[in-house]
UniProtKB/TrEMBL annotation:
PANTHER family per the UniProt record, alphabetical: D-ARABINONO-1,4-LACTONE OXIDASE, L-GULONOLACTONE OXIDASE
PROSITE patterns for this protein: FAD_PCMH (PS51387)
Any one GO molecular-function label of the UniProt entry: FAD binding
Keyword Flavoprotein among record annotations: yes
Keywords annotated in UniProt: FAD, Flavoprotein
The keyword Flavoprotein appears for this protein: yes
Domain FAD-binding PCMH-type: 1-181
Protein's UniProt name: FAD linked oxidase
Lineage: Bacteria, Pseudomonadati, Pseudomonadota, Alphaproteobacteria, Hyphomicrobiales
Amino acid sequence: MSGDAYQSFGRATPPARRALSAAQAIALLKGGGAGEGSVLPYGNGRSYGDSCQNDGGSIVDMRSLNRILGFDAETGVIEAEAGTLLSDIIARAAPHGYFPAVVPGTQFVTLGGAIANDVHGKNHHRRGSFGCHVVSFTLLRSDGRTYECRAPANPRLFAATIGGMGLTGIILSAKLRLMPVPSLDVMEEIKPFSGLAEYFDLAEAADRDNEYAVAWIDQLAGGADAGRGLLITGNHARYGARAAKTARAKLSVPFQPPFTVLNRPFLTAFNAAYRWRKGSARGVRQAGYQGFFFPLDGVSNWNRLYGQRGLFQHQSVVPDEAARTAVPALLAAARAAGQGSFLTVLKRFGATRSPGLLSFARPGYTLTLDFPNRGAATLALLNELDAITTGAGGAVNPYKDARMGAEVFAASFPNWREIEAVRDPAFMSDLWARTARVLLDRGEALAHAAE
């Protein structure tokens, strides 16, 4: 395989050194030949950090398992193999008036990856996370057995696999309940706000009145303009497109520059242009679904703009009661460090509980920041952002992460041992090795010392 064939999307960690095809891995698992920590499913490489990497073993390329197995136009339940892309599910269901109830920021994720990460979208306040709409799935484990998992059958495996980041086995196929929509198009409205206090005053009403709500923040703006941005809301249009467009990027970054082009002057100009272009729109306009949900899919390989060292994404969630203090502190820390975020997104999670044990999305506000990897200075900032987040009683998103320490992971997910108890011993990721395994080894060392 090529040197970067199985790299994470952030490109700040080394690519996988060994890969198996889905057929090879299935044969290995069914034959009982998978050793400890030897495999990890890999979808379409859209995870930003190292939750999709397994330096001590092999990753399993799942993209060959990409068939749609069935679709019930009456109930909106679609069944597909785990390597099926979300774009293909949309294309199959759209003519019948259905759309995934939850979509992340790209349609180029696999069904298995969306389940394993329990992804969230712009409508968590209405629909919860992706796992809330999973009907069932078929899971293959290293004991050679295939498990049919749904809430009333194999409930422990069902809950551990949703958000379990591929550590409980290989999802072979899944059934997903889609939601009926009058059209794919979205009636979009954009409201500028002068600062975070105004945003927080608007956010609850925006969620109440709209299917989708998300805010863009001008992260570099300081002083009286600190926290200014745009609140973007939307609802599916009553009349509009009923057929999906071909998922094809209009632009491309053909090569990776040796250094990031996303420097402060560029980001300042970009933020000003984006704020003017989007903020100058008045009233409600009808937008195509790809531009509304997946704007960056229009630029192929856009992550190359960060240069050879890649990028770190930091996504946090803090409780409602802490948000008005913690979110400004996170933005202020990034400005003080002189680090610019290309895209800064803020949105509100609702109270709907995920069926997954290790789901990131929970009630509160979530802030996403993207930083070019500038080495020690960026890592120091990320550690400071971790401390602000956990100090506010919040959590750091593991499937967007490539460097958080074991203590931050434990503070974010105090129930991580429930996943470890169900984790298939043949499955391991670099994320789990540097967080949960470190915690387990530390506990074992303390136990031995006490004897």
